[in-house]
Amino acid sequence: MEEKEPLLTSDHPRGGNKLLSRQTSSDQSISSDEEIDALLTDSPRNDFTGTLVFAIASCILGSSFMVGYNTGVLNAPAEVMKSFYNCTYYLRHGSSQTMDVCLSQLNSSSSNQTSESEPGTYMTQSQMTFLWGMTVAAFAFGGTFGGVSAGYFTNKFGRRGALLRNNVLHLIAAAILVASRYVKSYEMLIAGRFLVGVSAGVCTGAAPLYLSEIAPTSLRGFAGTFNQLAITSGVLAAEVLGLKFLLGTSDYWHILLGLTCAAIVWQVLTLSWCPETPRYLMINQNNEEEAEKALVWLRGRMDVSEELEDMKSEMENTKGTQKFSVLDLLRNKALLTPLIISVVLQMSQQFSGINAVIYYSTDIFKKAGLSSSTAQYATIATGGVNVAMTFVSALIMDKAGRRTLHLTGLGGMFIFSLILVLSYVFQEKVSWLRYVCVGTVLCYIISFATGPGAIPWFIVAELFSQGPRTAAVSVATLVNWLCNFTVGIVVPELQDFLGKFFFLPFTVMLLLFWIFTFIKVPETKGKTIEEITAIFDDSISKRAVAINKDTDQKYKRLNDSASES
Asked: What is the CB neighbour count within 10 angstroms for residue 309?
C-alpha cells in the first residue's frame, strides 16, 4: 500500500491558508476524497529563481548596501578626518602653511588632541566635539527627511522607480563628499553627509517594500532579511577599506567616502532591467497585464494565476478605501495597534545601542584598553560576525518565525550588554576583562543579527495591507532614523556623564522592548497579508480563531484516518 504523507496543518503557509480562505468564503467543510488527495499531493513550487535573485541583488546592493557603507564609513578614518578639520580651521585663521604640512605636523606630534590653550590656532576640544558630532549625526538627520518622504515617492513613482530616481541625489552627495577635501571645507562634508542621509532614508523605505512585494509568501522573510544582510555587508566593507594601509589615510579618506557611488552605478545598470513589483502594478496601478508579466519574469514560469488571484482578492477588499496619508494612518483606530508595533520594533533596533557600537566601536575598544591597531581589527571582526549571523538569520527566518527570533535577539542583547557594562567597570582591577569586553561585543552583535537587525525593516510591510502600507513604512522609517540620530548625538554625552556606565540605559531599554514584543507582537511567518491584517480586526480575528479550531479538528480526524488505513 502506498504510504501517504501527513496532511497539511492549519498553520501551514499553503494548505492552511487555502483551506481557511475557502471556509471563510463558503463555510463548507472538506467532504470529498478528491479534495483530501489534492491537499495531500499539493507541494509548494520552487520560487527562488535566478531572476528573483537578480532583482534582489540589484535592489539591495544599490540601496541597503549603501546605507550600511555610509553608517560605518566614518569609524576607521575618524582621527585623520579630525586632523583635516583641525588643519582647515588652522589655515582659515591666518596660517601660511599648506594643508599637507599642517597634517604632517599634527600626525608626527600626535597633537590632534585639540588644546584649549591655543585659541585661534587649532580648534578647541568643544569645537571639535561639536563638529564631529554634527558630521556623524548629519547622516541620520538626513535620513529622517528621506524616510518620511519615502512613502510619497514609492506611491508616485513605484518601488523600483523611487529607487532609480533616488540615485541622482546620491551621486550629487558623493561628489560633494569628495570635493570637500579639495576645497578644504568641513561644512561641505557635513552637507554631503546630510544629502547622502536623505538618499539613504528613501532607500530604507523603498528597498524593503520592493523586496517584500517581489517575493512569494513562502520566501518573504528570507528575501526581507537580505535588506539587513546588505546593510551589514556595507558596514563591513567600509571598515575594511578604512584601514590605514588602504583608504583610511589623510590622502585618501575622501575617496573612501566617495566610493559609495560605486553601488549606485551598479543599481542604475541592473535595476532598469528588473520589473516593478507585481503588487504595485496590480493594486496601485490596476494593470493586470503588466503585473502578470512581472510575475512570470520573477517566478520563471507561465502559470502565476494563484498569486494573481490573491492580489485581485486584496484589491477587491481595498476598493472604496481612501489612499492613506500619514495623517490618515494616525487617525485610523483600527490601524493603531499594528502601527504601534511597527514603531516600537523600529525603536527596539536603534535604542538597543547597536549604532553606538557601529559609530564608536573603535573608540569603545580603545577605552577597554586595546591598542589603536588592535581596536581597529576588533571592529572589523564585529562587522564580519554581523554579516555571517545575518546570513544565518536569513536561512532560518521563515522556519523559526519573526517573533521568536526577535525575542531571542533582544534577550541575548540584554544579557551581553549587561556583561559589557560590568566589564567596563571592573577592567582596571582585572586586566583580562578587556578581552571579555571584545568577546561580549561579538556576542551582542550575534544577538542583534539574529532578529532585531532585519525584522523591524520588513515586518512593517507584512502588518499592513496595500492601502496604508506606504504610509506605515514612512512613519516607521522616520522613527528609525530619528532614533538613529538621537543615538549618534547622545552617546558622546552619555560617555561624559555616565562614564563606564554609559551603556546601561540601552540595557534597560532592551528589557522593556523584550517585554513589549512578548506581549504584543504576533507571529507573521507563513501568513498572507489578509490573514495578518485580520489579527488586528476583532470581528475577523474571532471568526478566524473559530475557523482554525474547526480546521484543526478536521485535519486531526483525517490524519488519524490516514494512519489507520
From this structure: 11
Residue with cell 474547526: 550
User: Can you tell me the distance from the alpha carbon of 535 to that of 459, in angstroms, rounded to the nearest whole number?
Assistant: 14
Burial state string for 322-333 with b = 16 or more CB within 10 A and e = fewer than 16:
eebbbeebeeee
Residue 558 CB neighbours (<10 A): 16
Q: Is the pLDDT of residue 42 over 50?
A: no
Q: By the 8 A CB rule, do 198 and 478 touch?
A: no
pLDDT on residue 309? 84
What residues make up the domain containing 96? 50-104+124-274+321-527
Helix (H, G, I), strand (E, B) or coil at 117: coil
Amino acid at 117: S
Q: Residue 218, SS3?
A: helix
How far is it, in rounded angstroms, from Cα 563 to Cα 237?
Answer: 55
Cα first-last separation, the chain = 9
Same domain, 545 and 507: no
* Length of the chain in terms of residues written: 565
Residue 249 DSSP label: S
Distance, in Å, from the CA atom of 317 to the CA atom of 52, rounded to the nearest integer, reads 28
Q: Alpha helix locations (H) across 96-185?
A: 99-109, 125-182
How far, CA to CA in Å, does 432 sit from each of 215, 413, 443? 48, 22, 17
CATH number of the domain at 404, please.
1.20.1250.20
Residues 199, 81, single domain; the answer is yes
Are 442 and 381 contacting, i.e. CB atoms less than 8 angstroms apart? yes
In a domain, 302, yes or no: no
- According to the per-residue pLDDT averaged within each range, which of 198-202, 362-366, 551-555 is highest? 198-202
The yes-or-no verdict on residue 140 having pLDDT over 80 is: yes
Verify that 367 and 345 share a domain, yes or no: yes
Same domain, 422 and 467: yes
In this structure, are residues 448 and 235 in contact, taking their beta carbons and an 8 Å threshold? no
Burial class of residue 304, CB neighbours in 10 A (0-12, 13-18, 19+): buried
Q: Is residue 512 part of a domain?
A: yes
Q: Which of 238-247, 273-282, 461-470, 540-549 has the lowest mean pLDDT?
A: 540-549
pLDDT given at position 421: 85
Distances (CA, A) of 530 to 99, 312, 332, 463, 527: 62, 12, 18, 9, 8
Domain count, the chain: 2
Average pLDDT rounded to a whole number, residues 150-167? 91
Q: Identify whether residues 417 and 544 lie together within a single domain.
A: no
Q: Is the dihedral of CA 502, 503, 506, 507 positive or negative?
A: negative
Tell me: the pLDDT tens digits for 186-201? Answer: 899 999 999 999 999 9
Alpha-carbon torsion, ordered 269, 270, 272, 277, to 10 deg: -160
